[in-house]
Amino acid sequence: MNIQLCIVLFVFWVLSWILNRKDIMSPWVVVSMIFLIITYISIYISDIWDLYIAEETFAILSLGILSIGIGTIISKVVNRFFGKRSLAYLNNEIKTIIIYNENTLVVISVLIFWVATVSIMSVARSISGTGGLSSLIYAYRLNSLAGSNTLPSIVSNLILVNYAVGYIALYVIINNWFAEHSVNKKLLISVLLPAFIGLLQGARGNLIQYILFSVVVYYYLYLIYTKKRNIDVTLLVKIVVVLAIAIAVFYFLKVALGRQNEMEFVEYIGGLLCAPIKLLDVFVAEHHSKSVVWGLETFTNLISTIRRWSGQTGFVYRDYANYRVINGISLGNVYTAFRAYYSDFGMQGVFWCPMGIGLLTGWAYERAKSAISYKSINPYLFIYGYFFYGIAMLFYSNTFFEYIANVSFLKMLIVWYMAYQVFIKGKILIKLK
Questions:
Q1: CB 389 within 8 A of CB 383
Q2: DSSP label at 203?
Q3: C-alpha radius of gyration, the chain, whole number
Q4: pLDDT for residue 148 is more than 70
Q5: Are 297 and 398 contacting, i.e. CB atoms less than 8 angstroms apart?
Q6: Helices and strands, number each (H, E), in the chain
Q7: Contacts 24+ apart (CB under 8 A), 149-154
Q8: pLDDT of residue 412
Q9: How far apart are CA 278 and CA 48, in angstroms?
Q10: What is the pLDDT of residue 58?
Q11: Do residues 184 and 173 make contact, with C-beta atoms less than 8 angstroms apart?
């Protein structure tokens, strides 16, 4: 069914591309394009990796991706109903965003980085004793995956603050690049340090999220700057180069972070992209019953938090997502996002959960493009840039709801609002002696 799925996904991609006026950053365009590329690759390496999928898996993927499209179309219709023009953003001008309390921002980032580094390394040494940096990072990561409470809550919250503020700094850097054609190197510190904290925790996701956020913001600001409705060759080449670098970094960081590296680059990337679809197929073929806890896999973080608040044991991803080996090759334990929806709610979940993603991301996308005027930061573009990681990684795991349906996202919204008031609007001025 791989070829049939490839054909269906190609139809979805063409349809979404036409409906969104050739805008490649539309949610449905992005999702259908990513799954199309992955399915096409799987056809050529199916014999090696045994990546053939059954009819039920074909139905799940087709329905899920179609549902995202339905959600985005509904968002588009509602946006038009309220008189919003989808190309209105092209009438905006890119102006320099002034950062207030810039030195304070950098000092806070450095202090949080120092506290986080000391805490993470202290926990890592308590687990593994002595060892090099990569072995310590790997030990810390394994401990985190086991669900252990590795850091004091105050340190975890400080890391979240640093990470959230990094998004604002990144948006300002990109915006001011178009306005002034220069990079604020001091502000760049507030972006790099949170990413390094993520790497010290053995996680590559934070860095990838920053990269994808940058791609989205750069893309739309580029269109505003050039007054173009659609992507051109120059921008396309830049995006391809950035994504290629991101994939290479993702691979080589695997070694630096102490993870086992048994496969070559091409083999690893091919498996990384295609294995989740095969694992979904294996899971579906086993005919599991629905999750014993409502929404266990879809809303793991939220349910775990609620259970811990009530004095119960929380859940971790590894409790239900088993590692799989096929033909002597480890395919990991990520099953695409659709496993979660199917496991929790059956085919109804495969329809409604992706539709919810389409509605939410479609709303942010449409509002970002219909914003006629805004002060400093386009909030809808900012939110869509944050959502983008979730929709781009649907082929991999249930990243979208993991990052949105949890208390941490609520905290980030609060941090973004407060940071905007202090560092963008300058409501509070802080002078460092």
A1: no
A2: -
A3: 22
A4: no
A5: yes
A6: 15, 2
A7: 150/120, 150/123, 151/119, 151/120, 151/123, 152/119
A8: 93
A9: 12
A10: 93
A11: yes
| 371 Cβ contact partners less than 8 Å away, ≥ 6 residues apart | 88, 89, 92, 378, 380, 381
Number of CB atoms found within 10 A of residue 124's CB: 24
User: What is the residue-wise DSSP string for 110-136?
Assistant: HHHHHHHHHHHHHHHHHHH-S--HHHH
Phi, psi of 48 (to 5 degrees): -75, -45
Q: 233-256 and 265-285 are packed helices; what angle lies between their axes, rounded to 10 degrees?
A: 80
Mean pLDDT score of the chain:
83
Cite the beta strand spans of 61-157 per DSSP E: none
Rounded to whole angstroms, the Cα distance separating 116 from 132 reads: 18
The pLDDT assigned to 83 comes to 66
Q: What is the pLDDT of residue 342?
A: 93
Are 284 and 342 within 8 A, CB to CB? yes
Q: With 0-12 CB in 10 A as exposed, 13-18 as middle and 19+ as buried, what is 24?
A: middle
Phi/psi at 336 (5° precision): 70, 170
395 with 273: CB under 8 angstroms? yes
- The mean per-residue pLDDT over the stretch 10-16 comes to 93
Counting residues of the chain whose pLDDT is more than 90, the rounded percentage is 34
Q: What is the DSSP letter of 291?
A: P
137 contacts: CB under 8 Å, gap ≥ 6: 124, 199, 200, 201, 202, 257, 258
Say whether 83 sits in a helix, a strand or coil: coil
Q: Which two tokens stand for residue 289?
A: 């019953």
If you search the block for the tokens 């993470």, which residue do you land on?
Answer: 120
pLDDT of the residue at 329:
67
> Tokens at residue 158, please?
């400080």
pLDDT of residue 42: 81
Distances (CA, A) of 263 to 243, 249, 254, 331, 403: 21, 15, 11, 11, 29
Task: Give the integer Cα–Cα distance in Å for 154 and 260.
Answer: 32
**Backbone CA torsion sign across 170, 176, 182, 187:** negative
What pLDDT is stored for residue 101 in this prediction? 86
Q: Is the pTM of this model over 0.85?
A: yes
The pLDDT-based confidence of 122 (bands split at 50, 70, 90) is confident
DSSP state of 329: E
* Most confident range, picked from 96-100, 373-377, 386-390: 386-390
